Structure formats: structure tokens, C-alpha cells
Amino acid sequence: MTSGIEYIDTITPDGRLTGESRPRDEIHKNGIWHRSVHIWILNNKEELLIQRRSLEKESHPGLWDVSCAGHIGSGDLSLQAAVRELKEELGLTVRPGELKRIFSVESHFVLNNGTYKDNELVDVYLLRKNISIQTLRLQPGEVESVKMISVGALRNAVLTRDSSFVPHWNAYENLLDYLDKSI
């Protein structure tokens, strides 16, 4: 960030860095390809932490979403961004070795009458950790609330295309496939 402006490295649609970085607002105004991270937190009861996005968010306000998510800032590595976002959004300090990158997925959205265009390559991480949601420090303006849900509840939300969730259906399905093989 420079002068409070978040800069993000731009990429080609196949994920290669272009060597340029642009302000976040420009990225989304023009639908420029960039990278982000999603982090899922799974406890030993096979429950996932989900967050309700702040009502102030430009994209998907008030909808349930992954445990934590954010852009990969200019010059940052994916894993660095994941660790940073957990600290910023949830007040959760983790070591990089606690996170496992489980897949990458494309995400495309056009929102707000075409004024917000999102073309992302998302690195998805899993954090297996028992946490107490009461001890989390939620970032104002980003996270409205959090709760734990069963893997089965997420599966049902995906099957019914539950409109209270951010429609990351492909990413959710990939997560469920991964968990089916690893739990």
C-alpha cells in the first residue's frame, strides 16, 4: 500500500505476472486479472468457520463466505497474504507451516451494474485448527460476524445454491471434494 491505496500485481489469465501493479479500485473497475487467497479453517469436529461479509463491502455485502479472504498485495507471495489476512480479518496469528495450499480456482464476477468486475486466480488454503470464535477480533468494515458450520451444512448450501452465500460454487465444490478425500 502506498498513501492508503492498495496496489495489486496484475497477471495474465493463465496466472503469469505481467510486471505491472495497479490500484485495487482500477483492478475492479476494469476487470484486470489478479490473484487472491481464500483460507478455510476446519476444526477437529469437521466444522468450518464461515464469515458474514460486512454490509459495507462493495462486493457481496452481508453474505456468508470462506473463513477469510483477501488480495495478494503487490510484491507479496500467496502464503504471506494468507497469513496476513488471517491476522487482519480475524486477529488470528498463524505460522506459514500451519497452512496447506489445496488448490487454485478462477473466480469471475460482474456486480453493481457492471461497475465492479472481478477476474481472480484464487489460491485456496486449509488451516486445521481448533479455535474459539469468541476470541477472534473481527476487522470492522470487512467481517460482520463468524460462525462454525458442519461440512454437511456447506454441502447443502452448495447443492441448493443458498443465496445467503457468496456464489463461489466451484471453489466450494473443490473444497468439499478435497475434504471427502482427506477427512
Describe this structure in words.
The chain is α+β, with helices and mostly antiparallel strands. The chain has one domain (7-182): Nucleoside Triphosphate Pyrophosphohydrolase. The protein is built from four helices and nine strands. It has helices at 24-30, 78-90, 151-160, 169-182, and strands spanning 7-11, 17-23, 33-42, 47-53, 64-65, 68-71, 99-111, 116-128, 143-150. The strands form three sheets. The chain has a four-stranded mixed sheet, sandwiched between helices. Helix 3 runs antiparallel to helix 4. The longest helix is centred in the last third of the chain and has 14 residues, at 169-182. It is globular, with a radius of gyration of 16 Å. It starts with 6 loop residues before the first strand and ends with a helix. The model has no long low-confidence stretch (mean pLDDT 95).
List the keywords.
Nucleoside Triphosphate Pyrophosphohydrolase; 3-stranded antiparallel beta sheet; 4-stranded mixed beta sheet; 183 residues; globular; alpha+beta; single chain
CATH hierarchy, class: Alpha Beta
Helix content: 10-25%
Give me the strand/helix succession. EEHEEEEHEEEHH
Strands of the widest sheet, in order across it, are 6-3-8-7
Number of domains: 1
Give me the CATH superfamily. Nucleoside Triphosphate Pyrophosphohydrolase
Query: Do you know the CATH architecture?
Result: Alpha-Beta Complex
How does the major sheet shape up? 4 strands, mixed
Global Rg: 16 Å
Estimate the global geometry from the Cα principal axes. Answer: globular
Mean pLDDT: 95
Model regions low in confidence, pLDDT < 50 over at least 5 residues: none
- Kindly identify the CATH topology: Nucleoside Triphosphate Pyrophosphohydrolase
Helices, by number, come to: 4
